[in-house]
């Protein structure tokens, strides 16, 4: 049997249980304060209860889950005040990443950044809020990747996971895409111009606008997606 054939017959590696639950939380499939029942998660993840228990312990250290004595685990709710603090940290870290991306950017990155910018324009002009939200995530992820800042990647992954519900409410807020589009385009142009100072400033100004807008949507009802 050839190596290629053997590889084809092997099942795909199973995704770690913690990753499955983390993604479900960040997608909003579980509501804030919702109980996470080990037996149900074990069935959903096709894993043992011990594996689920270990995953919940890991997610508790990340701030996504909280364990309540004699009551098991539940999705940790993040207050508006904490959401603002998280975004303030993001403002510093992502500002650094934007500056580093401007120092490291190559032509291929510039083309991808500008393509995302054009798609964002199209999404806003067409009223495609969902599409714009996904492009927003792509842009921030691309800036982080181009920056080469691995430590920042780990920090931001945890912060975004904790803050996902507030981010979703803000993304769905009427008029938000129109307000944030020029901010995103400014980030793109500063990085493509290889201007670290302008890139950092553009990213910080964008996230400052997020901080300013969060109280406007803090009391709106959240529907899981």
TrEMBL record:
Q: Coiled-coil annotation: which residues?
A: none
Residues of the HTH gntR-type domain: 11-78
Q: Which InterPro entries match?
A: GntR_C, TF_FadR/GntR_C, Tscrpt_reg_HTH_GntR, WH-like_DNA-bd_sf, WH_DNA-bd_sf
Does Transcription regulation count among this protein's keywords?
A: yes
Q: Where are the transmembrane segments?
A: none
Question: Mind telling me which SUPFAM superfamilies this protein's record contains?
Answer: GntR ligand-binding domain-like (SSF48008), Winged helix' DNA-binding domain (SSF46785)
A GO molecular function term, named singly, is: DNA binding
What keywords sit in the KW lines?
DNA-binding, Transcription, Transcription regulation
Q: What is this protein called?
A: DNA-binding GntR family transcriptional regulator
Q: Which organism is it from?
A: Saccharopolyspora gloriosae
């Amino acid at each position: 049997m050839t190596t290629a054939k053997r590889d084809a017959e092997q099942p795909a590696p199973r995704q770690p249980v913690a990753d499955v639950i983390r993604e479900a939380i960040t997608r909003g499939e579980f509501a804030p304060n919702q109980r996470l029942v080990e037996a149900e998660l074990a069935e959903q993840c096709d894993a043992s209860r011990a594996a689920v228990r270990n995953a919940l312990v890991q997610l508790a250290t990340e701030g996504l889950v909280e364990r309540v004595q004699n009551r098991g685990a539940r999705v940790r709710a993040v207050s508006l005040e904490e959401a603002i603090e998280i975004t303030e940290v993001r403002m510093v870290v992502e500002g650094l990443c934007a500056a580093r991306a401007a120092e490291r950017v190559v032509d291929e990155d510039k083309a991808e950044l500008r393509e995302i910018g054009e798609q964002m324009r199209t999404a806003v002009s067409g009223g495609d809020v969902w599409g714009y939200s996904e492009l927003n995530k792509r842009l921030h992820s691309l800036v982080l990747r181009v920056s080469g800042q691995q430590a920042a990647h780990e920090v931001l992954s945890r912060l975004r996971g904790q803050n996902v519900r507030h981010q979703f409410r803000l993304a769905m807020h009427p008029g938000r895409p129109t307000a944030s589009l020029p901010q995103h385009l400014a980030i793109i142009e500063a990085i493509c111009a290889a201007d670290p100072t302008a890139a950092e400033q553009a990213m910080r100004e964008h996230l400052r606008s997020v901080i300013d807008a969060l109280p406007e949507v803090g009391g709106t009802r959240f529907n899981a997606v």
